[in-house]
Design brief:
The complex is a heterodimer.
Chain A (H helix, E strand, L loop, with lengths): L10 H32 L7 H11 L9 H35 L12 H13 L10 H22 L4 H26 L2 H11 L8 H20 L1 H6 L4 H6 L4 H23 L5 H13 L3 H25 L8 H23 L1
Helix pairs in contact in A: 1-3, 1-13, 3-8, 3-11, 3-12, 3-13, 4-5, 4-6, 4-7, 4-11, 5-6, 5-11, 8-11, 12-13, 12-14, 13-14
Chain B lengths: L20 E10 L2 E9 L6 E5 L6 H9 L6 E6 L2 E2 L5 H5 L2 E4 L11 H7 L13 H13 L15 H14 L4 E5 L7 H13 L3 E5 L3 H7 L2 E6 L2 E6 L1 H4 L2 H8 L1 E6 L8 E7 L4
Parallel strand pairs in B: 3-8, 3-9, 6-7, 7-8
Antiparallel strand pairs in B: 1-2, 1-4, 4-5, 9-10, 11-12
Classes of the chains: A mainly alpha, B alpha/beta.
Chain lengths: 354, 276
């Protein structure tokens, strides 16, 4: 209690300096992300420098020509660039979804998959790959997306029937997760041959290997939409810190807010999982790391979480595709190997504060 | 903080106008059971009203109806004569603030973070905090004596300090009505008195659910006694908290004494009505 009270006069200047620092921080974060993508593209068996990669991008955008051979140009433009960008989009999206879920469900261990979206996606994907569901019209991604949305709808219906409280939402998610995991295992063990099983397993652990420009564009569009909606609700999310009654007493439309945010994050998660599989731990751990960095206010937390998730997954995927070259490690394995120690740290921190 | 001073009757109260926040014969049920059955309440502006009654008598439900968090099944809650439902949630939250009996969070917030939550009903999306926001937060911290502790983490605070921070958060909402649901539960006697002293001195209309009849007698201008969802008595503590009422509502034998004429009653409990 010996702290010097702050002079009220310094407040406006402090606020302006704070805003300036926020903008500078955001710019720095974006620069780190851009640099990460630029460097990550050059890493791999084919020897390509930053300058080469840049010349390909520039020529594709009509700003000049590249001297690279068509094959090496293809490696940059058709393989590494979309893959790296999808990694950034997935990392940002999963991390933001995790942050929103944790605040909305008041559960520090919530992640984007807590509502069964990823389990539903894997059942959908397996149904297409192993059982041939969709009659060839539905792609694996399409099947995964349908499964994810179906599973989320089931969770919403279940939680609504069971009373709609926060713990009922989480328990419904757990139930759906178990149900769809069981269905996936059932289909794989009874109907799939060894080769298909291997492919499915790889997909289940998450892989950015199938990235193309379509996936990048689609996921980026949904990410942009979801980010806008979530940032628009930043203050509302802050209000949930002391629970839904406290939020309601602060003028928040609790039921509507929760519906909107759950649907938006589920849609984004479904799109990401359909494109890259269920990449674990990004959505659980990155929000905690971002909170440690900038505090719990969502107006700053959400952009920082997005940037941190993007940079993290770009490097995790780079590691995944190069560490055992020419063999590829599923990126979900890399994120989990990094994520588990971080997860333990989170548990430790929540233990301390209780 | 001078504990034990009780409610000051120095005539410095705001002028008594028509009640700004009022409940008119409100009812509310849950699981097919009536929790609140036609209760009316019209606190005088600037006064402290105590809600008394045994567990499950409907105190919390009445406070939730007054806050607009729950809607009455029958009857109406009005703010300045207009039904709460017509105001909109944010508009109500700019007028009526709530302090719950036990607020806690898993989020790592500082005192300042918590008090700033009170500005949410005043702020629009996408806009930074205004000078008025900062001023309201600063005033709320000052009023509750927390200015020096703005940067202290919530998790390191004691129960009494946490309630004080919640009151600061409520004040940052700049309310004219303050609703408190058993705010002194789990607090030691010094913090109980300190907290109610603070509430009694605020220039707002307060409605406080309380368990302790002596605290109610010390700090409330009027009390409303609930039993099984109905208001069975209302008025100044001196005339309302009688031995027969306490026996009737709480099932407890008590001796009510008055140190001097015009003083607030003191209640001493002797045992249950059924037996000793």
């Amino acid at each position: 209690m010996t702290a010097v009270p702050r002079s009220p006069r310094s407040r406006p200047r402090r606020a302006a300096a704070g805003a300036l620092r926020d903008v500078a921080g955001l710019g720095a974060g974006l620069a780190v992300l851009a640099a990460s993508v630029a460097v990550a593209i050059t890493i791999g068996p084919a020897d390509i420098g930053v300058g080469d990669a840049w010349s390909v991008v520039a020529s594709r955008l009509g700003w000049g020509t590249t001297e690279l051979t068509p094959i090496r140009e293809g490696i940059v433009w058709e393989l590494r660039l979309p893959r790296t960008l999808l990694a950034a989009v997935c990392g940002a999206g999963l991390a933001v979804c995790g942050a929103v879920m944790q605040s909305l469900l008041r559960n520090p261990l919530a992640d984007p998959f807590v509502l069964g979206v990823s389990s539903g996606a894997s059942t959908g994907a397996v149904a297409v790959v192993v059982l041939g569901a969709g009659g060839g019209v539905l792609s694996v991604s399409g099947g995964a997306f349908v499964g994810a949305v179906g599973s989320f709808a089931l969770v919403l219906l279940l939680s609504h029937t069971l009373g709609g409280t926060t713990d009922r939402v989480v328990l419904s998610g757990v139930a759906a997760m178990q149900l769809f995991s069981a269905l996936t295992s059932f289909v794989v063990t009874t109907a799939a041959d060894a080769e298909t099983t291997r492919g499915v397993l790889f997909w289940l652990l998450g892989s950015l290997g199938g990235a193309g420009w379509t996936e990048v564009g689609l996921c980026l569009a949904i990410l942009a939409l979801a980010l806008l909606v979530c940032l628009g609700h930043a203050r509302t999310l802050d209000a949930f810190a002391f629970g839904r009654d406290a939020a309601a007493a602060l003028g928040v439309a609790v039921a509507r807010t929760r519906r909107v945010l759950l649907c938006v994050t589920a849609l984004l998660t479904a799109a990401l999982v359909a494109s890259a599989g269920a990449i674990g731990f990004v959505g659980l751990v990155l929000p905690h790391a971002a909170r440690a960095l900038v505090g719990p206010g969502h107006a700053r937390l959400l952009p920082v979480t997005a940037l941190a998730g993007a940079v993290f997954l770009v490097w995790a995927d780079t590691l995944a595709r190069t560490v055992l070259d020419p063999q590829e490690v599923p990126v979900g394995v890399v994120t989990s190997l990094v994520g588990v120690p971080a997860f333990v740290l989170v548990l430790y921190r929540t233990r301390r504060t209780r | 903080m001078t504990a034990g001073a009780g409610r000051r009757d120095d005539g410095a109260r705001p002028p008594a106008g028509p009640p700004t926040l009022a409940a008119d014969r409100v009812s509310r049920g849950a699981d097919g059971r009536l929790i609140l059955d036609g209760v009316s309440l019209s606190p005088r502006p600037g006064s402290v009203t105590g809600l008394l009654g045994p567990n499950g008598s409907g105190k919390s439900t009445l406070l939730r109806l007054l806050a607009g968090v729950l809607a009455p099944a029958a009857g109406v809650v009005t703010l300045d004569g207009r039904p709460l439902g017509d105001w909109g949630r944010r508009a109500v939250a700019r007028r009526v603030a709530v302090v719950e009996q036990h607020a806690d969070t898993l989020v790592e917030l500082t005192v300042l973070d918590v008090v700033r939550l009170g500005r949410i009903p005043h702020r629009r999306a996408w806009t930074p905090a205004t000078a008025a926001d900062e001023e309201a937060v600063r005033t709320a911290l000052e009023r509750t004596g927390l200015t020096d502790r703005a940067d202290q983490p919530w998790h390191t605070l004691s129960g009494g300090e946490r309630q004080r921070v919640q009151i600061a958060r409520a004040l940052a909402q700049e309310p004219r009505e303050l609703l408190l649901d058993e705010p002194t539960n789990h607090l030691d006697i010094q913090h109980q008195l300190g907290l109610l002293n603070l509430v009694a001195e605020l220039p707002v209309t307060s409605v406080v659910a309380l368990h302790d009849l002596n605290l109610a007698a010390m700090y409330c201008d009027q009390v409303v006694v609930l039993r099984q969802g109905r208001a069975v008595a209302a008025g100044a503590p001196g005339g309302t908290l009688t031995e027969s009422l306490i026996a009737d509502v709480y099932g407890v034998r008590a001796a009510v004494t008055r140190p001097g004429p015009g003083d607030r009653p003191h209640i001493r409990f002797l045992g249950t009505v059924a037996g000793d």
